[in-house]
UniProtKB/TrEMBL annotation:
It comes from Lentilactobacillus parafarraginis DSM 18390 = JCM 14109. This is Aldo keto reductase family protein. Belongs to the protein-tyrosine phosphatase family. InterPro entries: Prot-tyrosine_phosphatase-like, Tyr/Ser_Pase_IphP-type, Tyr_Pase_AS. One of its GO terms (molecular function) is phosphoprotein phosphatase activity. It comes from the Bacteria. Gene3D superfamilies: Protein tyrosine phosphatase superfamily. Pfam families: Y_phosphatase3 (PF13350).
């Protein structure tokens, strides 16, 4: 059985160096609020997901709490808690509508250098190594905080840059209907210019993820340097990841 979930997908099957990502272990998407019984059954029984990692802020989690089931391990990790300005939540998108591109580029820099992002992604990636189990990781839209998390996993697993960006950009097609619904719901409260800016904020751009990788290299010299120095992961992290998640 396949059930529709917005911007939801598995990383399983993606080709990487010396193999492909194992099926049934790594899933990405948007928030899981207000799920139907069929959607919960799909995640719990069909996909056998046993761990949820939520990258959203406390305010986002309170406003739109995930629909959970028993037993599932739920772990909130706010990767942008110390970022003063970002465009990853609906409120942030609206507040920063006038300069959303600059805000998003700055946000992707923060996803490299901020203490909360470094600590958060460290915790997330350590969890994947310590307990390799079917895991769903997400934020609000499953595009920025989640997109970076997926890019880190794929890069460490040995995926080429084109595949990493292709997966990242799949969000734009996957969220078309959901984005249109959000704009329609908020339209009475927004000017035409704000609606246009919100539409722009709800999609991902190659430049955003490129800014993440550029910042990684500027700050740490290389992706491996980012893993070991930025995220404080062991030198053999990528090797461990590949043993567990690549076949």
């Amino acid at each position: 059985m396949t059930v529709s979930l917005t911007n939801f997908r598995s990383l399983g099957g993606y080709p990487v160096a010396n193999g492909h990502i194992r099926d049934g272990l790594l899933f990405r998407g948007g928030q899981l609020d207000d799920l139907s019984g069929n959607q919960i059954n799909y995640l719990q029984r069909d996909l056998k997901i046993t761990r949820i990692i939520d990258f959203r802020s406390l305010d986002e989690r309170k406003q739109f709490p995930d629909s959970l089931w028993q037993p599932v391990e739920y772990q909130p990790i706010d990767v942008l808690i110390d970022a003063k300005k970002n465009g990853v939540s609906i409120d942030g998108m609206i507040d920063n509508a006038g300069d959303i591109t600059d805000v998003m580029l700055a946000t992707y820099e923060q996803l490299v250098v901020s203490d909360s992002a470094r600590e958060g992604y460290h915790q997330f990636l350590e969890e994947l190594i310590e307990k390799p189990e079917p895991t769903f990781f997400h934020c609000f839209a499953g595009k920025d905080r989640t997109g970076v998390a997926a890019a880190i996993i794929l890069k460490a697993a040995g995926a080429d840059q084109q595949l990493i960006f292709d997966d990242y950009l799949r969000t734009n097609d996957a969220r078309k209907a959901a984005n249109a619904k959000i704009i329609q719901q908020l339209a009475p409260k927004l000017s035409v210019a704000q609606q246009h800016s919100l539409a722009q904020a709800l999609v991902v751009e190659p430049d955003y993820l490129q800014r993440f990788f550029d910042t990684v290299h500027q700050k740490y010299g290389s992706f491996d340097g980012y893993l070991t120095t930025g995220l404080r992961l062991p030198a053999d992290f990528s090797e461990k990841l590949r043993k567990l998640y690549v076949q």
